[in-house]
Write a structure and sequence with these properties.
With about 400 residues, the chain is mainly β. It is built from five helices and 19 strands. It has a single domain, classed as Porin (Beta Barrel). A hairpin with a 4-residue loop joins strand 17 and strand 18. The longest helix is centred in the N-terminal third of the chain and has 20 residues.
C-alpha cells in the first residue's frame, strides 16, 4: 500500500476542521466542534446514568525510507482504529470490550528490522474484538483482578514514557521489550496486589497459542495446554518529590521451540526483564529497559533501550512532547553462528507530538536504524514520517 489516499484524506479533512476551528473568531464554534461537544455530553450522561463509557482512537502513520540500499523512495502508510466500551457492573467491577481494525503493513516488511519501525501497522481490515475482560477491585483497590481475553502487555512491562505507539515512540522495541515473547491477545487472568502505596506484586497467565483475531476459546480449552505466564514486582517511590517506577519481570513459556542450531526442540523457556522510569524535573522523565532471552531458541539474547521525554519543549506549548530514545538488540551466539552476516541492530528515534486540541495530535518522527534486519551487509536506514491521531 502506498501512502494511503483514503486515510490520508481523512486525516487532512479532520486536520482542516481543527485548524479552521482554531482560526475562527471568539464566540463562534465550527460544526465539527459543536458535534464533538454534543457527543461528549451524551457520553458523560451515559456514564453517569448507565455506567457506560465509550472511547474512540483513530491513528494514521505515514513513513518514508529516506536512504539505504534499494530503499530510496519507499513510502508506506498504516491506518488503524479502535473502539472501546467500558461498562460498570457491581461495586468496583467493570467489563471492558475493545474492537480494532485498520489497513497497511508499513515499512517493516521492507526494512526487516528486528526492532520494528511501526508498531501500529499490520492491523487486519476487518473489525475484530481484541480485548474482552472483566476487572474487579477489592480491599480498597489493594487487590485488582482481570479475566477474559486480555493483552498481557497492558499489565506487564509498562513504562510511563515508552509504552504507546499512538502518542509516544513508534518503534515496537520502544513500546514493549522484544526479548519477551508475549503472546497475542487471548484468554488469560491477571492478579495484582499492592499492600502499600510504593510496592506491588503481579502475576498473570494467558493462552500461549492465542490468535489476536479470534476469541481464543478454541486454543485455550481445545488444544495443547500451553500457558505463557509472567510475574512482576515493582517499586513506585517518590524520590525528592519525583515519581519513579521500577519494575522487575520474570516470564515462562512452556511451548516447544526449535533450537537455532538445529540440535532439537527445547521446552520450558524462561527469561527476565526490567523497566524503569523516573521523573527528573517537572518537564523531563527518563526511562531504561532491559530484557534477556535464551540464546538457544531466541534470536535476541540481550535487549536494552533508554531515553526520555521533554514536556513543553517550546515556550507556551504546555501539552506538546518531545521524545528521544535509543534501542539495541544483541543477537545470541547461536544465531550469529548460523548467520554469517548477523550483527547487533541499533535504532534511534526522535518524535514531536503537537497537541492541537483535546482530540487531535499530529507530529513528525525520525528513525535511524544501524544494521537493519540485524544484518551487517545492509546499509544504515533513515526513516521519516508523520503521525496524526484523533482520540475521543
Amino acid at each position: 500500500m502506498r501512502l494511503g489516499r483514503g486515510p490520508f484524506v481523512c486525516v487532512l479533512l479532520l486536520g482542516s476542521c481543527v485548524l479552521a476551528n482554531a482560526q475562527e473568531p471568539a464566540g463562534e464554534k465550527s460544526q465539527a466542534r459543536t458535534w464533538l461537544a454534543h457527543c461528549e455530553r451524551y457520553r458523560e450522561k451515559a456514564a453517569e446514568k448507565y455506567g457506560t463509557y465509550v472511547d474512540l482512537l483513530v491513528t494514521y502513520q505515514g513513513q518514508l525510507s529516506l536512504n539505504g540500499q534499494k530503499r530510496e523512495g519507499k513510502g508506506k502508510s498504516s491506518f488503524s482504529y479502535q473502539v472501546g466500551l467500558t461498562q460498570r457492573l457491581w461495586k468496583d467491577a467493570e467489563l471492558y470490550i475493545e474492537a480494532k481494525g485498520g489497513s497497511g503493513r508499513g515499512l517493516d516488511p521492507i526494512l526487516g528490522s528486528v526492532l520494528g519501525v511501526n508498531d501500529d501497522a499490520g492491523q487486519p481490515r476487518c473489525l475484530y474484538v481484541n480485548k474482552a475482560y472483566l476487572s474487579q477491585s477489592l480491599f480498597d483497590e489493594k487487590v485488582q483482578m482481570a479475566a477474559g481475553k486480555v493483552d498481557m502487555t497492558d499489565f506487564f512491562d509498562g513504562n510511563e514514557v515508552a509504552n504507546c505507539e499512538d502518542f509516544q515512540f513508534l518503534s515496537s522495541s520502544l513500546v514493549n521489550d522484544p526479548a519477551i515473547p508475549f503472546p497475542s491477545e487471548g484468554i488469560g487472568v491477571v492478579v495484582r496486589f499492592a499492600p502499600v502505596e510504593w510496592f506491588y506484586v503481579m502475576a498473570g497467565v494467558a493462552d500461549a497459542q492465542a490468535v489476536e483475531t479470534e476469541m481464543g476459546t478454541n486454543t485455550a480449552f481445545h488444544d495443547e495446554d500451553y500457558s505463557f505466564s509472567a510475574y512482576e514486582f515493582g517499586f513506585t517511590p517518590k524520590i525528592a518529590g519525583r515519581q519513579g517506577n521500577y519494575r522487575f519481570l520474570l516470564w515462562y513459556d512452556p511451548q516447544p521451540v526449535d533450537q537455532i542450531n538445529g540440535s532439537g526442540v527445547k521446552r520450558d523457556d524462561a527469561g527476565f526483564a526490567l523497566s524503569f522510569d523516573q521523573e527528573i524535573t517537572d518537564r523531563v522523565t527518563l526511562f531504561f529497559r532491559y530484557g534477556f532471552g535464551h540464546e538457544q531458541v531466541r534470536d535476541i539474547e540481550h535487549f536494552w533501550s533508554l531515553g526520555g521525554q521533554l514536556a513543553e519543549p517550546l515556550p507556551g506549548r504546555k501539552d506538546d512532547v518531545l521524545g528521544l530514545a535509543v534501542a539495541q538488540a544483541v543477537l545470541g551466539k547461536d544465531y550469529r553462528d548460523a548467520n554469517a552476516a548477523a550483527h547487533t541492530e541499533t535504532l534511534l528515534e526522535l518524535y514531536y507530538r503537537l497537541q492541537l486540541n483535546e482530540q487531535f495530535t499530529v507530529g513528525p518522527h525520525l528513525q535511524v536504524i544501524v544494521n537493519p534486519a540485524a544484518n551487517s551487509s545492509n546499509d544504515c536506514a533513515v526513516v521519516g514520517g508523520i503521525r496524526a491521531v484523533f482520540s475521543f
